[in-house]
Amino acid sequence: MSSRGSENKIILVKRKTRLEELVVRYNTVQQAQFYIERLGADFSDYLSEDFQYRKAVETAVTELSAVGRLQVLERQHVPNFIFGAEDTVVVLGQDGLVANTLKYLNEQPLIGVNPDPLRWDGVLLPFRVKELRTLVTEVLRGQRQVREVSLAKVELNDGQSLYGVNDLFIGRRTHVSARYQLELEGQQEQQSSSGIIVSTGMGSTGWLKSVLAGAAGIVSRAAHMQIEESGGQAGRVPAVLTAVNAGRGLAWDHPELYFTVREPFPSRTTSAELVFGRINSRQPLRIISQMPEDGVIFSDGVESDYLEFNSGVEATVSLAEKRGRLVV
Fold it and tell me: Is the dihedral of CA 277, 278, 282, 284 positive or negative?
C-alpha cells in the first residue's frame, strides 16, 4: 500500500453558511432575522440551508473519522494552509469552494461533495455525504479515477504568483478604466479597458462564455441593422472568434487558455486590436501595468485574495506547471 494509504490524512474543507455570515455581521440570529424580514425576504430559507449544511458536516466528520486522521479546515484558512503531499482533500460544496481550494493544491486528489442536492446542482460535486466512507477508502487504495484540470498562472516580476482554476481577472479594483500595455507573440498594444479575463477550459462555460455571447450578440444585431439600413442588401459581417462550443465548452484539461479584453476603448493613445487570443506553454501573455493605484489581479471571483498590480509591475500569464486532480 502507498504512503497515502498508510497515512490516511484527510482534510475536510467547509464554509460558513449565509446564516453564519449574517450572525457575524449582526451578532445574533434574532437580529439577523429582523434584518432579513424587514427586507421582505424569507428567513426560513436561511435556517433550512444552515440546518442541512450543519447536518452534512456532522455526517462527513463521522464518515471520514472512521477512515483516517481528519482535520477540518475553514474556507478562509485555505490560502495559508500547507497541504501535505499525501493528503486527501474533501470539499463540502458549492462549486466555487471546489475551485477555490483546487488552486492551492499540488496535485493532491480532491473530492467534491454536495451537502444539499435539492438546493445545489453542483457540476463539481458528484458525490453525496453518505458515500464518503467507501469513496475515500477507494481513493486511498488508488481505486478511483481522477480527472485532470488545467490551471492558469500569473507571475509578477517581483516574484509573486497566483493560480486560477476557472479564470483570472486583471484590471482595476473599481469601475475606473484600467490602463496597461499588452504583449502577445511580439505584438504590443497600449490599452484602456474594463479589464482582462483569462479563462481555462473549466472556466470556458462561465465568464468566457458570457463575454463571447455578448460580443456575438452585438455583432449579429449590428449586421441586422446594417442590412435594414442598406435596403435588404447583406453587408459585410465581421468574423467573430468563437473558442467555446455553446453546448459543451472546452475540456477541463484543455492545453490552452483564452483571454478577452472587456470593453476596450480606442483613442489617440490606446488601441483595440489585440482583444482576444490564445495562451499556451509556448505563448504567454505579458501585461505591464500603467495604473497608479487600485490595480489588481484575482482569480475565480475571490477579490479578497489578490495581487496588487500597479504602475511598472509586469505580469506574465501562462498555463500552470501543475494540474488539479478531481476524483470522479
Answer: positive
